[in-house]
Amino acid sequence: MRALLIVSLLALTACAETTQAVDGVARKSAKAAVAETIVTRFPMVPKAYVTPFTDCIIDNASAREIGEFAKDAVIGVRETTAVLVRGVLERPETQQCITKAGLSALTA
Questions:
Q1: What is residue 17's predicted lDDT score, i.e. its pLDDT?
Q2: Mean pLDDT by 10 residues, the chain (108 residues)
């Protein structure tokens, strides 16, 4: 019984590590698509702020949205990518993140 418990715990640990690795890869791909979208579809964002904007968008996107962004990194940024970015940008949490990032960048 004890051995079964230990094996089960090890399996859960391995599963959690795999999930984190997959999430990390998806987020990295998603960031590439979001950054490209900001550069090409939101020219009013200064180049110095592309990374903070991207980070705030990714941090406030749902798992489904991260998946969509990751898919767009493979097939290419489209108008639907820009619509999804705009939707995440409109969220109060994303706006607060961008404001905080912008203010810290200005005072640094």
A1: 52
A2: 50 51 71 95 90 94 93 93 96 93 52
Residues in contact with 41: Cβ distance below 8 Å, sequence separation at least 6, in sequence order: 77, 81, 82, 85
**pLDDT at residue 103 in the model:** 52
Q: Are 77 and 39 in contact (CB under 8 A)?
A: no
Give Cα separations from 3 to 9, 10, 12, 50, 67 (angstroms): 10, 11, 14, 51, 37
Do 93 and 56 form a contact (C-beta atoms < 8 A)?
Answer: no
Q: What is the model's pLDDT at position 9?
A: 43
Structure tokens at 94: 């994303």
The whole-angstrom separation of Cα 25 and Cα 11 is 21
Angle, helices 2-41 vs 50-60, to 10°: value is 140
Q: How far apart are CA 91 and CA 37, in angstroms?
A: 18
